[in-house]
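Work package 3, deliverable 3.1, input record:
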Amino acid sequence: MNGHTILVSAFIVAWLSASLRLAGPVLLAALGETFAERSGILNVGIEGTILLGALVSFLSSYRTGLIWTSLFVATAAGVAVNLFLAWMYVSVRASQVITGLVFNVFALGLATTVYRLVLAESAAPESLAVFQPLRMPVIGRIPYLGPVIFGQTAPFYLTLVLAAIAQFVLYRTYFGLAIRATGENPAAADAAGISVHRMRYWGTLLSGAGAGMAGGYLVLAQVGMFRETIVAGQGFIALAIVIFGRWNPLKATLAALVFGACDALQLSLQIFANRVPPQLLLALPYIVTILAISGLFGRAVPPAALMKPYVKD
Amino acid sequence: MTKLFERRLIPADSPGAVASTTALALFAAMAVTAIFFLYYGASPVQAYFGLFHEPFGTLRGFGYSLVRAAPLALVALGTIVSWRSGFYYLGFEGCFIMGAAAAGWLSLLTAPGALLGPVPLAIFLPLVILFSLTVGGLWAGLVAFIRVRLGGNEVLISLMSNYVARFFLQYLVSGPLRAPGSLPESPLLPRDTWLPFILPGTRGHAGILIAVAAALFVWVLLEKLPLGYELVVTGFNPVAARYAGIEVDRRMVFAGFFAGGLGALAGMVEALGSQHRLMDGISGSMGFVGIIVALLSRLNPLAVIPVALIYGGMSVGADAMQRRASIPSSITFILESLAVLLVLASDILRFYKPNFSALRLSKLRASGGEDSA
Amino acid sequence: MKHTLEMKNIVKRFPGVIANDHASLTIHAGEIHALLGENGAGKSTLMQILYGFHSMDSGDIFIDGKRIQLSSPKDAIALGIGMVHQEFMLVPTFSVVENIVLGLGQGAGPMLDLPKASSKTRELSDRFGMAVDPSAKVGSLPMGVRQRVEILKLLYQDARLLILDEPTSVLTSGEKDRLFAVLRELRKSGRSIVIVTHKLNEIMELADRVTVMRDGLVLGTKSIQSTSQQELAQLMVGRDVNLHAVKPEACFGDPVLRVEQCVIDEGGIEKVHAVSFEVRAGEIFGIAGVDGNGQSELVEAILHLRKIKSGRVFLAGTDVTHMSVAAHRAKGISYVPADRRGVGSVAEMTIADNAVLGLQRRYTRGLFRNMRDSRSSAQQLTERFGIRGAGIDSAAGKLSGGNLQKLILGREITSGASLLIVEQPTRGLDVGAVESIWKELLRARQQGKAVLLISAEMEELLNLADRIAVLFDGRIMSVFDAPFESVDRIGLLMAGIASSPGSTSVASQETERDQTL
């Protein structure tokens, strides 16, 4: 094999591997958000929730060194803050977009302040206890594809499993049926004896769980450290992925992989194309997302009652 | 047992009810933020004093408060115009950046030896205002067009567009507009293009006047012009608007254009009035804090002026606090956002009416007295 | 086991109106019982109480002599009572079987067993002659099949008493025949069916007994054999006219509005079939008909808020069929919609601002709004039309129904238009407000305006209109001139029965125009 081929194959392997790795957090958040939107709630606050989950997982791993516990704690933190958001959305019936947006600013302030507080007490850790890529015997050694498909970190595989579970729950259980009904025709759900309020609380809490875990994923299995800018709009991209994936967990998985590929492209292409401004590549995932949800490629039909507060009269 | 609070069907909306629940919310926000002050070992009273003293108690600080308030006010005004027309645009960070970039680019063109050469301020100022307005207007107007023609969700698209704008600016200051040296920022903008200082003893500049003028203009638009009337009706009730002969789609695109222009003007004011150069992060989240200012002003253009001043002042005070007491300035984000969240939440309190007779009754019982119900 | 359901002395009040005034009703097992009355007679409310949706203020309900309590639809279904609403409670993106399973609750287990539910659905649908594909998406089904899904939902949960609210209002005549066949099968199986309706020919064709309601009162129950369409129409429609308007001499001018062969369709179904009529200056032209017979579609088309499939609209000779809404207004059409709070006004804006809705471009001085003139115009409206309840600077949402209607009507009348379209102008208003509105409409007529009055209230039409056209199922059945002697005939036509003596129902005269399923 000549040097050129080696370089190209190295590029492709690096790109594929990064695609999968980068898709993880965004997919996790999108899976949770799918349940929220299916119940009729648009939770813009997942951006802030991911940040808080990231912070919590960092603090936990810093103090305890336990990675699975930290991931769990991040998830729990996501659920806890979304309890407040759910209350605002469902009981107070505040505007969902406004509440979520302002909450994101709050989360940024909170995360930054707490992080600085921690740094003030002790210097930033040089390394954090994080998930290591798996090393599978035999199948992990398959040239090229082995490390890509079987060499990801545990949370990645967990995410895939969760995607499958989400698909099953949404379409094969009564709970999933009830949530979907709440988002399409809350009056019909109500007439059938389903508590619209309770379903929407569930939906929001599930999106909080997904976002919290996504934050943990970012710190513990992707970046390896906490930064205030660690989320950088991935929560919003998760919202777009939900639309892109037509509110279906399996399709969202594919959409997330596409996004991950775009994101990874800019990492890998930098090796090659140094005439293309790196910022263009950085902007690529966002531009692609805009095109995807602009309506150019067919109008995505959201759940009919999305963002419409339900009042029993 | 009679409840202490009865649920009303329609929320109480007397000015007294609104004021008291809002005050309660603001107080609660300050109380929660105080917890963080405590954590840093500062007494909340001292901290709040420090937060507000510099920006409102000193001349120089007040000048800075005005300077910080101006772009916030402009973003808030853009929010008001678009949201009251039913166009939920959130891309003001992007408009801000694009406006700053446009102003910076035009300004650099007038550097000695550059394409245009030095241009008197009297000509440059209207030109750069027009240019920024157009760039911002197109930036946001495109999103409005997508919403009206293709049905795209403007909330998400505008949020995404913020990141595209940020990367575009990063590109400009790392490449074409980069100053010699290692920092990714533009050269200092030509002195002739700086917004003139208008308050002696401070760094208060003409951008403040632009903001005030814009506030008046938006107020006139929404209250006194037929176009504004149509925008407002479209925002309240698009069906009724259509039945009244209003072209809802066109109005929404106009609202987007106008709002984007205001957002870009905010960037222009910051670039030519304060920073005097372009760099990454020039927006400093003002694109979002400005939205918060609009919300706290209850989407009233005149109320924007005092609220923007308070928020501008808070950011000045926060910086001072960080310098002196090492308390991170991000605490103000907590206070600012919590204030809005709790004010929104407090609206639910107006659904409940305190049942005074039940209160009296329970007091009587508690004191062992006989009740004569 | 034979079941008898008895409702005794049901009283239900809503703010300002007695919906049910000591209403009593008995329903036997294995019968089809019709509940007949106009809009606002109280029949829907009575059934919603039976179905557990509303609570009654007083009264009793007995099944087989035993008193029952109904506090929610779940209680009702547990007792075997189910209702099919006029607006179906279906999730369009779900399949038929998913919609059916939705109502079962977690009781059937957390996992969905769609195949089992599908086969039970198929069984039920075959048994009663309703062909339904359990896996079809409800949103893609025609109305007649969707209705079957609603019925199947009830049968799946063992309903013994089925209430259908205006079941044929969304059906084509072929679908209607199929529905009747199904209902007869259900009757044979010993179930009871209550149909709430205003359509006399269908009652005569299908029901065993009929109960007539008017103004919250039950006028009586008769068996179908012992009564006739005429008698029922009289009971339903005829009343002591307690409001009597004094109508000045007519003085008609040229036609202002001319509608020619207007056809409107929606989703493949024709809502309005080749309707033509004219309204002259100084005339009140009434269109009589119960809601849902094409009135709103027709009006929206005249205003250009809706596309016309074919046909034309002329205003004072000019073809306005394709002009924008604003242009229509400029040319002289004004409109008072049926939905006064949702469409005719903006609740959050002040009365002063609502007074110029649609006219904002006229009240200008140079570039600016002429606030002084628009406020004085609002003030004048308040005085002239007697609008009470709030100052012109308070929110329009605070006005009562009557005062809001006066505001809207006043605005449209004083806008200087030559054609005034008014839709259900006095719905939900008290007698005093009704009188004022009528007075204003007659005054507009006196001033030479052409008035198109669309109403479901016979009294209103009889008092105000110079001519009445009856709209049924998207067609103009007939046009009557004042003085209106044959009120009964108008009533019959509103209920779908053709006017020529000795003829059978309209249904048999129609050609089968829809495809088989």
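Confidence is low (pLDDT under 50) at residues 369-373 of chain B.
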